[in-house]
Amino acid sequence: MYARDISRQHPDVSFKWPAWLGLCLVIISGCAATRPSVDLPEMSTWERRQEVLAGIADWEFKGRIAVKAGDEGFNGKFDWTQTGDNFYATVRGPLGIGTVKIEGNDRTIVLTDKDGVETVLVDPETELFNRYGWTIPVASLRYWALGIPDPSTPAATEFDETGRLVHLVQSNWVVNISRYRRSAGQQLPRTLTATNPNTRVRMVIDKWLFFE
User: Fold this and answer.
1) Strand 165-170 and strand 156-159: pairing?
2) CATH number, domain at 170?
3) How far apart (Å, rounded) are the C-alpha atoms in residues 24 and 146?
4) Residues of the chain whose pLDDT is less than 70?
5) Fewer beta carbons below 10 Å: N end or C end of the chain?
6) What are 125-155's pLDDT values in tens digits?
7) Beta-sheet pairing, 186-195 with 200-210
């Protein structure tokens, strides 16, 4: 309203972005959109694989998720971004679920539901189950998706002949990685299933990105 009043009083006044500012915005946007990813180093043994993957601080994946819990469940898209200890996950399900966002770190985890309402989760797996009738292994998924155990709790592990994790029992979940594929220069999980007494979560990872 203020800008319109000035225009009426002073017809010669024009409101334009300075040319240099517009150019800067274009350059910044282009840099953000083309952030280069990097390949992972050699991981020929399980020990080396665990060392490399546990040391990665900045990465993301994009994929699909299918969740089943009794008569409840859904199929949707699932994206995960990890930056140091902080993660940001988005689950896009059907209309009844909508888009659910879960973000946080080792200290605080926040759920944003399809209506934009934020809730701090004290016990994420239990609270997700109570709210939706299904859950996902929020605390450990950042490790399992990479194909390594969560270092914070004991785990029983099985490997294939090339030293890749294929079976894991940890924190009341049974995890099976049934398929790997080459991505970022190395073999990384493609299909993962995590099951606990109440919920079955199946993930297909379509794209991996790692950053320096």
Assistant:
1) antiparallel
2) 2.50.20.10
3) 37
4) 1-34, 95-96
5) N
6) 999 999 888 889 998 999 999 999 999 999 9
7) antiparallel
